[in-house]
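Proteins fold reproducibly. Take a sample protein:
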Amino acid sequence: MSDEKKPPASVGGPNGRIDREPLLDSYQAAAILKVHPRTLQRLVHRGEIAAVHVGKLWRFRASSLTAWIDRDIAS
């Protein structure tokens, strides 16, 4: 038996990794929405799109962009 500690079964997927959605930068997210990166940042500042501020950079989840599109279409 190995002395290595194993994570609890509830943590992560197979191999003990935590599967997270990759974050997109402003240029990638803006390309998905087909807007200028500065327009995207304005939407973030208004609180219309969720983002994470990492240092001086904004990061976006593709699911947040999809949710924003769905909300915009529904209204």
